[in-house]
Amino acid sequence: MPKTVRFYTLGCKVNQYDSEAMLEAFLVSGYSLAPHQAPADVYVVNTCTVTGTGDQKSMQAARRFKRQNPNGELVLAGCLAQRVGDKLRETGARLIIGTQYRGKVVALLEQAIEQQTQLVAVDSLSSVPFEPLTIHAHAGHTRAVMKIQEGCDCRCTYCIIPSVRGSVRSKPVAQVRAEAQALADAGFTELVLTGIHLTSYGKDLGNVTLADAIQAVHAVEGVMRIRLGSLEPAAITQPFVNALKDLPKLCPQFHLALQSGSDTVLARMKRRYNTTQFREAAERISAAWPLAAFTTDVIVGFPGETEVEFAQTMAFCAEIGFMRLHVFPFSPREGTPAAEMDGQISQSVKETRVHALIQVGESLAALYYQRLLGTVQPVLVEECLAEHEWRGYTPQYVQVICRGSTAEKIVPVRLTAIDKEGMSGDIVEPYQQKG
Ligand code: SF4
């Protein structure tokens, strides 16, 4: 019987990609995915350490799987494993690999099993090359995530990521194009380009930029949509926008990580822009894509954040008119400057501010949907909910419930209503299937 494997992935799209690549390594080595709920022979937990919650959930998953099958082999990968390495031996993990050697996960695991030992393959990340992982599928997904960049050279004062992901490394453009072609051939019409600091793509490849990678994927037959991961506001220059604005496959949804709408807080975070520069970046994008949707991340309760600074964040988010706000309470990360800063905010104040900003986010989403009401938008159909009822997403990443019958992957839908999760509408003739 082929041995079975189960994956549990925490954190960001980059971790999802790394898990997909490791899964493919197991599948080509003769393993199969463990049936749902059934104990597995091997458990892989791809950990996250971006917040304290990431650590806790990673450890809970490791302990849960060890309880589910005490004889099962446990592999701990990802950012928490990279940060604490040896300390995770107490979980009983057979293999701890961190954010390297994912391509060798099966060989390292089988080596450790053969030697009946625990193997901790966590090394420093200084001057390591881009690990050439490739995926050919993204099981159970309509869109495929492509990691084209790794690491970060910035030093935001609250962030632990550079220490667990290393410096900027990029996948060469030719490999990006080849992977996109393989995914398009596998039936993925929408590709999401992601990285730890995506806008740094190419910095280590000489005269290469993110726009080059996007244009390379845009030229791939079968790719119908390209979505971008989180972008650095400071990198949204006019030349960057000019290089992309005539690419019809590029989805006009831009995740510009704001983090705070207060210039004094941004300065304490050591972010590389202020609200004026952020506003200008958003205006450049809106000029090129009038119905562009902005999504973002905001940290509330950063050390020293006053009521005035928080009010500035609320007001700035409303001014930009984000379609979606991802709101996070500040989580002090050991080893980061912000964890040592004076003026740490109480948990209750953080919760109050998170709640208040989430409410702002909900009203901003409704305001954005208003702008799409009555328009016809191409919807990538993902799921059939009932006869003649489908769920999918617009290029702006608005969830749409649409009515009508069709066999097309992408259909034009006239958006007629706003609901809690998004919008709804009718598939426009002649895309309606006859009879
Ligand atoms: S840009 Fe800042 S927040 Fe993002 S990974 Fe780099 S250091 Fe962390």
Please mark out the parts with pLDDT under 50 across 5 or more consecutive residues, or reply none.
Answer: none
Indicate the radius of gyration in whole angstroms. 22 Å
How many DSSP helices? 12
What is the H level of CATH, i.e. the homologous superfamily of the largest domain? Answer: tm_1862 like domain
Write down how many β-strands occur, each being a DSSP E stretch of 2 or more residues: 18
Briefly summarize what is shown.
The protein is an alpha/beta fold. It has helices spanning 13-28, 52-68, 79-84, 105-114, 161-165, 173-185, 210-218, 238-244, 263-269, 275-288, 307-320, 347-372, and strands spanning 4-9, 32-33, 42-47, 73-78, 95-98, 119-120, 143-150, 169-170, 190-195, 225-228, 253-255, 293-300, 324-329, 376-386, 389-393, 399-403, 410-419, 422-427.
Description:
The chain has 435 residues and is α/β, with parallel strands linked by helices. The protein has three domains: 4-120, Rossmann fold (3-Layer(aba) Sandwich); 143-371, pyruvate-formate lyase- activating enzyme, CATH 3.80.30; 373-427, OB fold (Dihydrolipoamide Acetyltransferase, E2P) (Beta Barrel), CATH 2.40.50. Helix content is 33%, strand content 23%. It has twelve helices and 18 strands. It has helices at residues 13-28, 52-68, 79-84, 105-114, 161-165, 173-185, 210-218, 238-244, 263-269, 275-288, 307-320, 347-372, and strands spanning 4-9, 32-33, 42-47, 73-78, 95-98, 119-120, 143-150, 169-170, 190-195, 225-228, 253-255, 293-300, 324-329, 376-386, 389-393, 399-403, 410-419, 422-427. Strands 2-1-3-4-5-6 form a six-stranded parallel sheet, sandwiched between helices. A five-stranded mixed beta barrel has the order 14-15-16-18-17. Helix 1 (13-28) links the parallel strand 1 and strand 2 (32-33). Helix 6 (173-185) runs parallel beside helix 7 and helix 11 runs parallel beside helix 12 (347-372). The longest helix has 26 residues, at 347-372. The chain is globular, with a radius of gyration of 22 Å. It starts with a strand and ends in an 8-residue tail after the last strand. The model has no long low-confidence stretch (mean pLDDT 94). Iron/sulfur cluster binds at residues 152, 154-156, 159, 161-162, 196-197.
